[in-house]
């Protein structure tokens, strides 16, 4: 009976989506172009270097080296092996869904157990500083100082989620390794052993890193376009405003403006769209806006969650712990945003009134300049590496014939 209900539900959603596309072809096309531009200009060129670097570092044993060094930190705090430190740092630096990608690769290399991979996944999939400062604080909210509140709340909330999730699942018995006089010596031995176990030549390792990274990014692009269209269709058929009424009640209970309900609902599906809608509201007080933005940043949005679900589908990593952690992260980030708003934003504004304006402008525009440069060169980088991936795949097909 359960499977029958699931079949009917999936078929109904698919029919609804297809019918909506037929009814609103122009609007669906515009939403699709919007998602494509975001992927072409920002997502692909910003994530590709991190994905390739992560693949190479794992293949050459550097992650194993770092894992031994990070073990004294990661195991007591988050109850995961030291290799998880690499996924945590890379996830924060490069943004969604890098943490999920690296966690899956570590699981495939048997450097994590199933429970450890689920713990690691719960707190390594974070937003990038470029997105928080460049797109959100400067691009949408037009105030770089708000980026500090959002970033600290987001990353500190992420760490708190990791500490909470350390108690998830049964703790497996660890293999107690022989203690060496130096962590560095043991780390180097593990790195050397890992490199020797991978018999692929250097060119093959690099080629696989490029192809795997681009394949993942193409999948991510598909999800971005899909959810961009899906969110637009929900609004066009009038379903979004109806569901937003439920959120209005919740926001009023929490003491937040009811006008944020519709942008909040949109942000649950797609972060960028929700944040942009929130920034355009004429609601008094910026605190309410950044509290909602902090929540949807921590929640990741269904678009990012779908990307993660697709990445972990080929492994035994379960999605439920990750989803629970997203709710927890959104809650932590929102509370931290309220607590840190005064010391990191209001007090800082009063302190900097006597600062030199020219220096302030230069500091605040750095992230916007970086984002503008990325948008200019992004499409060229994307098209070039898609061509490289196509060439590599073509050569491999010729060799197999």
TrEMBL record:
It holds the Pfam family Gate. The chain crosses the membrane at residues 7-24, 44-70, 77-100, 120-141, 148-168, 214-237, 249-269, 281-302, 323-341, 373-394. Keywords: Membrane, Transmembrane, Transmembrane helix. InterPro entries: Gate_dom, Spore_IM_YlbJ. Residues 43-137 form the Nucleoside transporter/FeoB GTPase Gate domain. NCBIfam families: spore_ylbJ. This is Sporulation integral membrane protein YlbJ.
